[in-house]
């Protein structure tokens, strides 16, 4: 019997909200600094932008939301390693099956459309083209 892990939802503390706010202010400040330093050389503007963005990301990652994002990424990588990928022959066969199915469905839908068109326009309405 499989057990499920219930998700425990935590209430954001004031410190976490402050971290997120500071992170957002740093992102806005990074963009503003890039444009306000228009008279400076490009390399200086880019360094200022990158430093402020790195500080914003760093502050975000130490908040509860950032920790949850890191845990989600780690779980995703762990689950990806569990995937059993098909062999080349199996992948080619399945791709062929998909192409055949799509062709048959397209043919079926085309025939259905033409049959309904004939039934409506020629038989019911009597419109001849």
From TrEMBL:
Transmembrane spans? 20-37, 43-62, 91-111
- The gene it comes from is secE
An example GO biological process term is: protein targeting
- Any idea which UniProt keywords this protein has? Cell membrane, Membrane, Protein transport, Translocation, Transmembrane, Transmembrane helix, Transport
Name its species: Aquincola agrisoli
- Assembly description: Component of the Sec protein translocase complex. Heterotrimer consisting of SecY, SecE and SecG subunits. The heterotrimers can form oligomers, although 1 heterotrimer is thought to be able to translocate proteins. Interacts with the ribosome. Interacts with SecDF, and other proteins may be involved. Interacts with SecA.
Q: Name one Pfam family in it.
A: SecE
Name of the protein in its database record? Protein translocase subunit SecE
Subcellular localization is given as: Membrane
As for family, the record states: Belongs to the SecE/SEC61-gamma family.
Is Hydrolase a UniProt keyword of this protein? Answer: no
Query: What is the recorded function of this protein according to its Swiss-Prot or TrEMBL entry?
Result: Essential subunit of the Sec protein translocation channel SecYEG. Clamps together the 2 halves of SecY. May contact the channel plug during translocation.
Q: Which GO terms describe its molecular function?
A: protein transmembrane transporter activity
Write down any Gene Ontology CC term.
Answer: plasma membrane
HAMAP family attached to this UniProt entry: SecE
